[in-house]
Design goal:
The chain is of the alpha/beta class and 539 residues long. The chain has 13 helices and 18 strands.
Length: 539
């Protein structure tokens, strides 16, 4: 071991990221976790340095390397890039993906990785020759097998594989090793999919970090097998032929592994983190509302206006509106600002401040805003407090200002299958069991059924109600992300409320049957997104 042995892990996922961190720490490494969900400069319970980095903003990656240098007076000699942005497209229409969504995949999966590779090489050049230097990218089979339904995600993986290949070719002889790690199912080399194993990654990454020469940059491995030279093998076990993709691979696109983490719909502030909810909710709203961040009913013009983004979450809506409308000043408001970017990275027309929608409005915010925006707050806005909430929002508006509120109607969730006439009974049973675990809340959310009337009875004028039909491309991702959100949320709830453990275990077993049904029937879920816009009277 060297005094310079430091591992920087960009993207701290619950399986790969945490397992790799634990392994390197156990071997004596100083470990640094870079994530947008941590407090910058804090120390984790395991003793890791935590650095706030948002992989959606590639330039922010440099902050992680600067923090390591400042804290340890040396750059990291092992860098693990574990970030990804998984996005679905219709399997028969890959070019239907919007440029904005395409860029979102590229920023996380490729651009941030490229910046990380740049910074890693800069640091490697300053380290003693005796210190092992390794850059590892967490990949999958998409650089070899073109799964039709994940075109933008697959392209980001292929671009990242190219970065690794170029790095290995250019710097391998200098002792800077670059590896693309791809776990497969033992024996046949099929993609690991949902069965990825954190400890298997940790063991492989530890082996790759040991001193030695650059080995082949593409590392395929299986749990309990170690490194095995698997090629392009689909979910059906058939080797990929570049001239023809078996149609069974299209069915395999529904395997959850390819659309997992950044699109989880997290139960906001109730069970799990809020960071990824903001990302997914923003993408869902963009798609279903034709990329109208502000409804055309709200006049913008060229005048400088002040906009409140209430329950801003990650700040993704505020940042995009600020970029699209530079004459607007956006103030993101939330009870917890841990998921927002650091002040140094913000454009000049965006600020964030702490704010609790369930408490009285501070005097300085009364009639401050020309536009108040809020979305996806139904998790904590109930029939018992909705009237108080909307009155608080109205107090924030200047006379003549506009309120825009977007939410999903959980009372009217529906399920759809691509198989005519077949009802997804296992999925519906899963939903019912989940309702029993968390408590049936529909009786407390009747206001969602009367959204337009709520605006009118609150005194708003020129009220417009928009409830677009959900795009087919959103149905299956919503279905999977709802399951993943509850899976993670129930995992936390099981530890905090042991008396619900049996019910949660039964739900987990039912989840397996539901996932099989989703794959067989191609089940999608409609969250019934809806939006209301209204103008505060002048007098």
């Amino acid at each position: 071991m060297s005094a310079s042995d430091t591992a920087l892990i960009l993207g701290a996922g619950p399986r790969v990221g945490s397992s790799v961190a634990k392994k390197f720490a156990s071997e004596g490494y100083a470990v640094v976790i870079a994530s947008r969900s941590v407090q910058d400069g804090s120390t984790s319970p395991e003793g890791y340095l935590q650095v706030k980095v948002d992989l959606d903003q590639p330039r922010s990656v440099r902050h992680a390397f600067e923090s390591v240098m400042e804290h340890f007076q040396a750059p990291p000699n092992v860098v693990v890039f574990n970030g990804a942005h998984r996005l679905l497209n219709p399997p028969d229409d890959p070019f239907s993906t919007s440029l904005e969504s395409f860029h979102a995949c590229s920023k996380v999966g490729f651009e941030s990785q490229y910046v990380a590779a740049q910074e890693a090489v800069k640091g490697f050049k300053t380290l003693p020759e005796s210190v092992p230097k390794t850059f590892i990218f967490t990949g999958n089979a998409l650089n070899q097998v073109p799964i039709p339904q994940v075109f933008p995600f697959a392209l980001s993986k292929r671009l990242s594989a190219t970065v690794i290949e170029y790095g290995a070719n250019a710097y391998g002889s200098k002792g800077y090793r670059f590896y693309y790690a791809d776990e497969r199912k033992p024996g046949d080399g099929r993609p690991a999919g949902e069965d990825i194993d954190g400890e298997a990654h940790a063991e492989m990454y530890w082996q790759l970090a040991q001193p030695g020469l650059q080995e082949p940059w593409l590392v395929t491995f299986g749990k309990g097998e170690g490194r095995v030279p698997y090629g392009g093998v689909g979910f059906d076990g058939v080797p990929y032929n570049a001239e023809w993709v078996d149609h069974q691979l299209c069915d395999a696109c529904y395997n959850e592994s390819f659309i997992r983490e950044p699109y989880k719909i997290h139960v906001r502030r109730l069970l799990v983190r809020q960071d990824e909810l903001g990302v997914y909710a923003h993408e869902l709203t963009q798609t279903n509302f034709e990329h109208k961040l502000l409804d055309p009913a709200i006049p913008i013009g060229d005048e400088p206006l002040i906009v409140a983004d209430v329950a801003t979450g990650t700040g993704v809506w505020a940042l995009e509106v600020a970029e699209r409308f530079p004459n607007l000043t956006i103030e993101g408001l939330d009870i917890n600002l841990n998921e927002t970017p650091p002040k140094a990275w913000l454009p000049s027309n965006v600020t964030f401040r702490e704010f609790n929608l369930l408490e009285d409005i501070p005097e300085e915010l009364v009639e401050r805003y020309d536009i108040v925006h809020v979305q996806f707050v139904m998790i904590f806005v109930l029939d018992s407090n909705v009237h108080a909430v909307i009155q608080r929002l109205l107090r924030m508006l200047k006379p003549g200002g506009y309120l825009q509120w977007t939410d999903s109607n959980s009372n009217r969730y529906s399920w759809h299958t691509a198989t005519t006439g077949q009802e997804p009974t296992e999925v519906i049973k899963l939903y019912t069991m989940a309702q029993d675990i968390v408590g049936k809340r529909s009786q407390n959310l009747k206001w969602l059924n009367n959204f337009e009337d709520l605006f009118k009875r609150s005194g708003l004028k020129d009220v417009e109600y928009v409830a677009p039909e959900s795009r087919p491309s959103t149905l299956q991702p919503v279905m999977m992300n709802w399951i993943w959100a509850l899976e993670e949320g129930f995992g936390h709830l099981r530890m905090k409320v042991p008396e619900r453990a049996q019910a949660i275990d039964e739900w987990m077993e039912q989840r397996k049957r539901a996932l099989q049904e989703i794959e067989e029937l191609k089940v999608g879920m409609n969250m019934r997104t809806q939006r209301c816009i209204g103008r505060k009277p002048v007098s």
